[in-house]
Design brief:
single chain, mainly alpha, Lysozyme, globular
């Protein structure tokens, strides 16, 4: 199936999965610029650098995540990975935690009705577009690397308007339901002051 047709089908599925008719949302395909950024992110193998600050953050967030991910080793490894990938992409780790909370509730094997996969619910077409056609979106590193890069791009395109960026991340440019849910998770559970 040609990539363009696959992409259109994926966008229609996202609209239908949101519980609204496809005509109620203006869906925007990824730009060439975003595709290049995702390709670069997929090839970036740098890791988390500031261990001291991260440890303070990790302990605080670990307590918040404990009810969802009870195994302390898995929880700490996941939080370290989220912090590292968010920091690498230049986005708030707390915002990424909020998105994951809403998208998959930290289930790395989550699959949406539209076919989005993993922690940050990334559509499978991103693997091919990023140069990782044999990649696995259930692999936390891959999912977070692509998700954080996509989020950063939408934050830049939205000139820092978090609501607009979140709607774009969700695949739509109208409505605020999704952004409200993510922002509620941010303020009620993941805020770092």
């Amino acid at each position: 199936m040609p990539l363009r047709r696959l992409f259109v089908l994926a966008l229609c599925a996202v609209a239908l999965a949101a519980g609204r008719p496809a005509v109620a949302q203006k869906l925007v395909p990824p730009s060439a610029e975003l595709i290049v950024l995702v390709q670069k992110a997929a090839a970036d193998h740098t890791s988390f650098k500031d261990r001291y600050d991260a440890q303070v953050w990790l302990m605080t967030m670990s307590n918040r995540l404990a009810p969802i991910v009870p195994d302390v080793k898995k929880r700490m490894a996941l939080l370290e990975l989220i912090h590292a990938e968010a920091t690498r992409a230049g986005v708030s780790p707390e915002l990424v935690l909020s998105i994951i909370n809403v998208e998959s509730n930290f289930n790395r094997f989550a699959v949406s009705q539209a076919g989005a996969q993993g922690l940050m619910q990334i559509m499978p077409f991103w693997l091919k577009l990023s140069g990782l056609p044999n990649g696995n979106l259930f692999h936390e590193n891959t999912n977070l690397r692509l998700g954080c890069t996509i989020l950063k791009y939408y934050l830049q395109r939205s000139h820092g308007d978090i609501r607009e960026a979140l709607q774009r991340y969700n695949g739509a440019t109208v409505g605020i339901d999704y952004s409200d849910r993510v922002l509620r998770a941010l303020s009620s559970r993941w805020r770092w002051d």
